[in-house]
Design goal:
CATH class: Mainly Alpha
Strand content: under 5%
Low-confidence stretches: 1-34
Solcar repeats: 34-125, 141-227, 236-326
Keywords: Membrane, Repeat, Transmembrane, Transport
Protein name: Mitochondrial carrier protein
Pfam families: Mito_carr
Helix content: over 70%
Subcellular location: Membrane
Number of helices: 11
Radius of gyration: 21 Å
Mean pLDDT: 81
């Protein structure tokens, strides 16, 4: 999610953007609006395709993350992706790998739309507040504005669309017994049984992870790409972007994964009428997991998360670029 949001922010324009003269602005504004719609559609579809292709690994990650929540951690076996995948096929059927994927796709478009819109608004506000011109002459100030704007946009989008993320976790965590029969049934049931705030369980952990994830993604991506291009300037831009994007995804996942695990477990608090396990907030939950399951417990499920990083980013890049090309041709034909 965040990797894709980062890509969208970077493509929104960089420090090297050229100054546009006054008489050129009306034409460029019209082209920018067309480009924005195309980017939004391409980004949403690319995210949906990527999520669908990597959904089995995503569900395995969630199932591993919630192990030990309602059982004695000492009885848990060492996580085995193959063993868990075999269990899913034998007990739930092959289609069960995509449990919760429909709500993931439903979450993707509004999240992308709100991220894109909020980023532009926050960026313009910060430029006015700091008195910085959007002509790319002050590179350090421009980078700070983009990082702050991207972080605020991520927080805004995550807050607005969070109930869908919570529903996705609950649908994915279901095994043989289906307490929630679909998206709308889950939303109604959670609101009725746990109150409207039940739809926002774990939001704090989610928002705490947005800033670090974005900062790590940006810094690792920019640093590795700059070094690579200095050492091997003849290499393909697509290859460099894919490799550096994968490294940034692995780095950000490694650092923020414990917060993601806490978020998932808090999302499942009280699900299906079960008793509450964690009653001490984000940091109390974090400490409780470490005491019960050790340091390994806060990284439960990290392997399938690693495995999905490279194909996820690769599919996003390929789908996004192809759709942009198709939509650009459509725009040209319609004119």
């Amino acid at each position: 999610m965040q990797t894709e949001a980062t890509v969208g922010v970077v493509e929104g324009g960089g420090p090297a953007r050229k100054l546009v003269t006054h008489h050129q602005r009306p034409v460029q504004q019209q082209q920018s609006q067309v480009g924005t719609v195309s980017q939004l559609i391409a980004g949403g579809v690319a995210g949906a395709v990527s999520k669908t292709c990597t959904a089995p690994l995503a569900r395995l990650t969630i199932l591993f993350q919630v192990q030990g929540m309602h059982s004695d951690a000492s009885t848990l076996r060492k996580a085995s992706i193959w063993r868990e995948a075999t269990r899913i096929v034998n007990e739930e059927g092959f289609r069960a790998f995509w449990k919760g994927n429909l709500v993931t796709i439903a979450h993707r478009l509004p999240y992308s739309s709100i991220s894109f819109y909020a980023f532009e608004r926050y960026k313009n506000f910060l430029q006015m507040f700091m008195g910085v011109e959007s002509n790319g002459t002050n590179i350090s100030a421009d980078l700070c504005i983009r990082l702050a704007g991207g972080g605020l946009a991520g927080i805004t989008a995550a807050s607005v669309t969070y109930p869908l993320d919570l529903v996705r976790t609950r649908l994915s965590a279901q095994r043989n017994v289906l307490y929630y029969r679909g998206i709308w049934h889950a939303l109604r049931t959670i609101s009725r049984e746990e109150g409207i705030f039940g739809l926002y369980k774990g939001l704090g952990a989610c928002l705490l992870g947005v800033g670090p994830n974005l900062a790590i993604s940006f810094s690792v991506y920019d640093t590795t790409r700059s070094y690579w291009q200095m050492q091997r300037p003849q290499d393909s831009t697509v290859l460099v972007s894919l490799a550096c994007g994968s490294l940034s995804g692995i780095a950000s996942s490694t650092v923020t994964f414990p917060l993601d695990l806490v978020r998932r477990r808090m999302q499942l608090e009280g699900a299906g009428g079960r008793a509450r396990v964690y009653n001490t907030g984000i940091f109390g939950t974090f400490g409780q997991i470490i005491r019960a399951e050790g340091l390994r417990g806060i990284y439960r499920g990290i392997l399938p998360e690693y495995y999905k990083v490279v194909p996820s980013i690769g599919i996003v890049f390929m789908t996004y670029e192809k759709l942009k090309q198709v939509l650009s041709n459509v725009d040209t034909t319609c004119r």
